[in-house]
Amino acid sequence: MGGGHDEREQTLNQLLVEMDGFDPKTTVIVIAATNRPDILDPALLRPGRFDRQIIVDKPDLKGRGKILQIHAKGKKFAEGMDFEVIARRTPGFTGADLANLLNESTLLAARKNKIVVEMPEIEEATDRVIAGPERKSRVISEKEKELVAFHEVGHAIVAKSLPQTDPVHKISILPRGQALGYTLQLPIEDKHLVSKKEIEDQIKILMGGRIAEEIIFGTITSGASNDIEKATELARNYVCKFGMCEKLGPRKYGKTHDYVFLGRDYADHSKDYAEETAREIDLEIKTVIDSGYQEAKHILNKEKEKLISISKILMEKEVIEGAELDVLFKENGK
Question: 189 catalytic, yes or no?
Answer without folding.
Answer: no
